[in-house]
Specification:
Two copies of one chain form a homodimer. The first copy, chain A, is of the alpha/beta class and 340 residues long. Chain A contains eleven helices and twelve strands. In chain A, helix 2 packs parallel to helix 10, helix 3 packs parallel to helix 4 and helix 7 crosses helix 8. The longest helix of chain A is centred in the N-terminal third of the chain and has 18 residues. Chains A and B meet through helix 10, strand 11, strand 12 and helix 11 of A and helix 10, strand 11, strand 12 and helix 11 of B. Chains A, B: One of its GO terms (cellular component) is cell envelope.
């Protein structure tokens, strides 16, 4: 745990607060000023509050996908949504935020599963009777009621299959991401499981780009220098693609060295449009939080009660594990994503 | 494919029809005569029709869980729901029903994934632009947009872990179900993977009860005769439990020979209440069809549009694979299910 004062600085710094307390929460639903239809014939209390706790709260991918869908859900349902957490990637600060939110007794908690270390805080929320859903990465050692995310092994397989198509099943391939993360290692395995079936595909390196664009570009330049006949390169974190693309363009090999990678931020889409990246394996992050919030609501409102008293029965009446699937984005459909 | 005339007889026989055509569909929503709130601010067309196609349409477990939740969902949303299919377990007749329903262009199709053989009919529906969701068993070789079901490997593990607790980790165990079904074989494997970690647990037999109560009872009697010191027995189809319980009661060993099995129909619950069955691994079938229907609706209404045109982009904007999880029902919470 980082010292309290540091945590407060981070959180308050981002949110423009001075005191060491939870910031005033956004009231997405009530600030709209419109009457909204709701998903059940239950009475919906407009003060019913669903709280998302993440880390790196201002990361564009989180803001544009996870948070945007969560707010839109709250507006549709006529309930409050609040989004809390430190501005930087700071797991101890996220844990402290969860602990503080528990004390305010929200209707439901939607937690970005950033690290196995948040399991204890999740268990505190569950023990306090708060419906608690984890998204993005699972925290399987916790008592969370449900998890929604992407199957990263499939992200790797999808890239492997695309790379085989793009190279006609032969050539040298390198790949990079954040080494050691459970998600990414599963992705690497998926990639390798596909490539190993093609004896003419040769893996020349696995690299740690630490989610840093400059480092991803530097690694790619070095690999291109060592292997002038490199056929393709695969990326697994949000900055892998932009970094790899930069180096491949600088080497004058755009379109010749094939690139597949993850995520579909504007920069990634533009690089597909330009023909520098051949395929994006995109996550449906909007669905993590839209349906995650809906499951919280459905627990609160007992939408699908399975016994006389599901809490007393120690059962949950929402799905346990949701794989939202993948988007395959190529030059053929990239305009649909740029136009959105 | 069975001859058309036989199919019509089956379907019409069950539904009390004379002509060889689709029966008039139930209008659960409109017949209610009440104004219902809906899940989105979209205009909802009360003629918007969602069609479930199953087989063995009158099986109590299907009627009381799958179909009941689907109808309730339709009422909540203010749309039509229809349930079609042959009265017996008849996959060719289910396929023919799907093909006929496609021609009527429903808003969405919710299909019980009874057999890999229905893949072609599913693909026809998808090719016709009809949102198509599969539930219960997956048809992974099809183009279905989403699948909701139970992880049967976990059903086996759950029974194994319970049996270890009940027997203090030592004794002879037998198990039965429908041999050869993908789901059940995964369940058997889960059971064995748990038991093999306990050197004092001994598996004395794997049996095919063909989902027949009398056969399950006969097998159990024979196993008890061969192994008077049998510690426990595990079941994997809906009739395993009632059959095993019958034989164990007849042998005067209720509560001594431990029983774990699947499903939570009234008969199963009563046997838990009596102390003959120690644990049920229950499926959340209501969630298969409730959320399956919701995903169809969300595709139709583009609730979470991810691009300018998701159909043109060849992507789906609903989750791909949903594991609804398990209910652990024991003497401690069985009253909550009996009281429901």
């Amino acid at each position: 745990m980082i010292p309290k004062v540091v945590y407060c600085f981070l959180l308050a710094g981002f949110l423009g607060l001075n005191a060491c307390e939870l910031p005033p929460r956004e009231k997405t639903a009530t600030s709209e000023g419109t009457v909204l239809t709701t998903a059940t014939s239950d009475e919906v209390n407009p003060d019913e509050e669903y709280v998302m706790v993440t880390t790196a709260i201002s990361m564009p991918m989180y803001v544009n996908h996870d948070q945007s869908a969560f707010k839109r859900w709250g507006q549709k349902m006529g309930v409050k949504t609040s989004i809390l957490g430190p501005s930087e990637w700071d797991v101890p600060a996220q844990i402290e935020t969860i602990e503080q939110v528990i004390a305010t007794r929200p209707a439901g908690l939607l937690i970005n599963g950033t690290d196995p270390g948040i399991a204890l805080a999740i268990n505190q929320a569950v023990a306090a009777g708060i419906p608690t859903v984890v998204y993005d990465s699972d925290v399987p050692n916790s008592n969370r009621h449900a998890f929604l995310g992407t199957d990263w092994y499939q992200i790797g397989r999808m890239q492997g299959e695309e790379m085989v198509r793009l190279t006609n099943g032969k050539g040298k391939v390198a790949y990079m991401g954040i080494l050691g993360l459970t998600n990414m290692e599963a992705g690497f395995q998926g990639l390798l499981d596909v490539l190993k079936k093609y004896p003419k595909m040769q893996v020349v390196g696995k690299y740690d780009d630490k989610a840093n664009v400059e480092l991803a570009a530097k690694i790619t330049s070095d690999v291109l220098a060592a292997h002038p006949d490199l056929a393709g390169i695969c990326g697994f974190d949000s900055n892998s693609g932009p970094g790899m693309a930069l180096a491949v363009k600088e080497a004058g090999k755009a379109g010749k060295v094939k690139i597949t990678t993850v995520d579909w931020e504007p920069e990634h889409l533009q690089l597909v449009k330009e023909g520098v990246i051949q395929m994006l394996a995109g996550q449906k992050r909007e669905l993590f939080t839209w349906y995650g919030a809906q499951f919280l609501f459905d627990m609160v409102h007992r939408t699908n009660r399975l016994s006389a008293n599901d809490a007393a029965s120690n059962i949950t009446n929402v799905p346990t594990t949701i794989n939202t699937g993948l988007l395959r984005i190529t030059r053929e459909n990239v305009d649909q994503f740029l136009k959105k």
